[in-house]
Every structure is written in structure tokens, then in C-alpha cells.
Amino acid sequence: MNEQKNFVESSLFNNLKNYLFDLSTPWYRQIGTTRDDAPDMIWFSHCFYNYARPDCQAYELIIPILDKLGSRAPLRVQANLVRKTVEPIRSHWHTDFEYKDSFTSILYMNTCNGPTVFKSDNIKVMAEENKMITFNTSNEHAGITQTDVEERIVINFNYF
């Protein structure tokens, strides 16, 4: 796994953060983090790119990030929002895609006490604003809800 702080240039990061935290940005309610297990939590998604095409007007904000990641072909780029919980809740272990040689990168949009955890090596990555982590998509991971701020927003980049 690769971890980089201050990954996105400041003005682009601030534009992206302002867009995602704006009250007019559409978020879509999701129930459960996997299809095979019982629902574990309610969360919200906002898709930038899916099904081989841009999926929102703000797609241009993520193009420079895909370029910096060295993406040859994006699979999906989606922001995830979870609400504050009284006690931490871990999502189900999951992988985002099953493609060989694909990658997942997670960009943390705000700092909070809701980490990302990895099943195979028990690594815990704390959510810090503008930090990017990158790993092979086959690496099972889970998110843990935060108890300190109202919303935790990350952007998941899945790509070749």
C-alpha cells in the first residue's frame, strides 16, 4: 500500500471539497456495503464516473487526479459519505472490483477518527484531509464510521 499526504494541489482540492460539502450536491442513499451480506450501515454516494462514462457535471474536477494516479482507464470514481455514529461501526470486508491488475485509491476529503482498515495485514489508515492511499483492488478493506465529525467523505478511485 502507498500513502501520500497533500496529494492534490490546494486549489483543486478546495474546489473539490467545496463541491462535495455543498448542500446542493446530490447524494444517493445506499444500504449496506456488500451485496452478499446483510445490510451493515446506511451511507450516501455521489458518482463522478461509472459504466465507462462521466456520471456528473463535476467530472472535470477528478481528471487531474486520475492523471496523477497514472490511470490508464477508470472503472468507477465515487464519493462516499457516512454520517457520524455514537459508536464506531465497521462496514463489511469487501473489495471494490475483482479485476486483476486494477487499483483502488482513496482520497480523504476531511480529517476525522473514521479510519480505513485492511483485513490481510490489520493495517489501519487514519482519515486525514487530502491524503491518498493506493492499493491493489483485490485487497479486502472496510471503513469505520467516525464519532467526532458530522460527515466523513472519501473519494474512491477504481482504475487500471
SSE diagram, text form:
Blueprint: E1 2-4, H1 10-21, E2 28-31, E3 42-50, E4 53-54, H2 63-69, E5 74-83, E6 103-108, E7 112-118, E8 124-127, E9 132-136, E10 141-143, E11 151-159
Antiparallel strand pairs: 1-9, 2-3, 3-4, 3-5, 5-11, 6-9, 6-11, 7-8, 7-10
Q: Strand fraction band?
A: 35-45%
CATH architecture classification: Sandwich
- Please report the first level of CATH classification, the CATH class: Mainly Beta
Give the low-confidence spans: none
- Structural domain count: 1
Using the coordinates shown, work out and report the CATH topology.
Answer: Jelly Rolls
CATH superfamily: B-lactam Antibiotic, Isopenicillin N Synthase, Chain
Distance between the termini: 16 Å
Characterize the largest beta sheet: strand count, sense, and whether it forms a barrel.
8 strands, antiparallel
Shape: globular
Overall mean confidence score, pLDDT:
95
Radius of gyration of CA atoms, rounded to a whole number: 15 Å
The helix/strand order is EHEEEHEEEEEEE
Q: Number of helical runs?
A: 2
Main attributes?
mainly beta, 12% helix, 2 helices, 39% strand, eight-stranded antiparallel β-sheet, Jelly Rolls, 160 residues
Question: Could you walk me through the main structural features you see in this protein, from its secondary elements to its overall organization?
Answer:
There is one protein chain. The model has no long low-confidence stretch (mean pLDDT 95). The protein is mainly β and 160 residues long. The chain has one domain: B-lactam Antibiotic, Isopenicillin N Synthase, Chain (Jelly Rolls), CATH 2.60.120. The protein contains two helices and eleven strands, in the order βαβββαβββββββ.
